[in-house]
Amino acid sequence: MDIESLFRPLDTKLIQKRLTLDDHRISDFTKFNHGEFPYWQGADIVIVGCPEDRGARGLTGSAMAPDQIRRHLYALAAPKRDLKIVDLGNMVKADRMIQYYDRIADVVEEVVKAGKLLIFLGGSQDIVYGQYKGYQKLTDSVEYVCVDSQLDVEDSDFGIHHASYNHKIFLHSPNYLSNFTNLGYQSYFVPLSQKVRLRNLYFQGLRLGELRNNLREAEPFLRNASMVSFDMSAVRSGDAPGTANPSPAGFTAEEICQLARYTGMSNRVSSVSVTEILPMRDFNAQTTLLGA
Could you tell me the pTM of the whole model? Predict the structure, then answer.
């Protein structure tokens, strides 16, 4: 399908210019949607913004995050000089959220089918439901890893939002979810009923304390994942104050970057989402920088 109609161009002011001719920033290796839709089929990595927070149950503001993350991301030094990145811009909003999830699914299906790594910049974390739906026509087996301080398995019969989208994924028909793992949940945020629900489905949750003792325990789960989602509220508020659910406990900035590195090292991960950043709560833009 033609996905061009699902996007609006980026503001050219978002992309910082090079300071010297010797600089090699990520922006130097990225093609942007500044009005003319880029040829994304030649890229290795495709970036998509999801400025949508209607699923945040009143915690609005994360819709501003994609562009704020970009301000930092494209100013960073490139890790190598053969990067091929395309930023398709921000997805156009839909009248109803279920339509928006379907649009995300269409993008996942098209981009992942072409063998590209797809990165979503959110937005609230309920966009992950659309991320998951995109695999429906691509595979009969999805391994999904979520880095989050909570399990987000509240009853979705009352609506899909950032605390219930995983429940909706678990109930999705047809069922192609072969495994789910939550990394870094904090027990005092998770009711016993939710832990039992996860256990009854034979899914896994690794507590923050378990991973803090040995972060490498997370690597096999991320290595085998098809899709990964990062809720930046999983990072302690001292390192990431601008999140939807800040907590004094959580991963450190270095630990969340290490988890992202494990994700990037995987040959199986085909889509990643970074969500739940609230720029208006941020201090010195350190959360959006960490997201970048």
Answer: 0.96
pLDDT at 17: 57
In this prediction, residue 237 carries a pLDDT of: 97
CB hemisphere CA count around 216 (13 angstroms)? 0
pLDDT in tens, 113-165: 999 999 999 999 999 999 999 999 999 999 999 999 999 999 998 899 999 99
| Residues 6 or more apart in contact with residue 147 via CB below 8 angstroms | 182, 183, 184, 228, 229, 230, 231, 234, 251, 256, 259
